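job 3f2a | input accepted
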Amino acid sequence: MHIHRTVYRDDHEMLRETARRFFERECLPLQAQWDAAGQVDRETWLKAGRNGLLCLTVPTEYGGGGGDFGHSAVLIEELYRSGVSGWSLGVHSDITAPYIVRLGTEEQKQKWLPKICTGETVLAIAMTEPGTGSDLKAVRTTAVRDGDEWVINGSKTFISNGLTCDMVLVVCKTDPSAGAKGCSLIMVDCNSEGFRRGRKLEKVGQHAADTAELFFDNVRVPAGNLLGVENKGFMHLMEELAQERLVIALYSAAKLERLLEQTTEYVKDRKAFNQTVWDFQNTKFKLADIKAQATAVRLMIDYYIGEHMRRRLTVQESAIAKLFATETLWKCIDDMVQLHGGYGYMLEYPIARAFVDMRVTRIFGGTSEVLRELIARQL
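job 3f2a | predicted structure (379 res):
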């Protein structure tokens, strides 16, 4: 992008080359295999762990990288820049694991985090239910205390890593009469009796992502699997959702930049009416607009990455970041598909793959409509 980026330190940038090589050499050659299987193979998870590419912000005493959010951001940028599709690496490392780091007891951290950092234990987070969508206050999955155990009943849907996960962080109602104030977060071992995985959900894009339904039928887990404070789950979620939304925003920025590079290369090579597509003024104007928008997104996201590294990112700011980045990305992808002509509709081209893969960014992590509502409350 020819922008002098100041948000990252030298140690962040040293990670970039390692991550880029890993995704290009170890992941891209397996993309067709992952798409056909509907999930990423476990050996790749273990390779990522051996290469120190999982849980970069988890303290070293628990097996993590001991880094800050800047390290995670670099890794996420390179994952999406590479063109790898459907690997929910961020769900494991940057969305679910931080709950354990921040809320877990010392015993919980020592017990769970080392294998999470190696990839032996893959994580998922189960918020969404068939009837709730973005309304987390309306979850119906219940957890009832019975002696030294929680008994969990309910179902979840749209769960990333749903078929692969070994442990899942479940949002439950522990006091159904209290609305949002009655939610709790409980870790569930996927080998627990009564836990069942449903079908792999067939999505428009991201076919390697094992998005699934999960069912809990009198699943008993130890009382010690509660994360954080009982009935404070909604508050805990709100404290972490800012990072989740920033993650989506920052990989949208990286994807937009890479697609602009690829589209520019394509139109300068593609011939039409005895000239290249680049030679048409319309093409230049469209790409100039996209370059301006990509630059605006990059400058905004870098600012918010810096704010988050200083622990100053607010819920509203993360909503602004995700809304602007994902809405801009989608508009620009549509324009770049058009510049590819018929080939923009062929999945062998990166722009077509992005068209189906990235549409969901305006939905998960909070729909654009929900984010607008959150932003408007502060006006």
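job 3f2a | The chain has three domains: 10-121, 124-230, 234-377.
job 3f2a | closed
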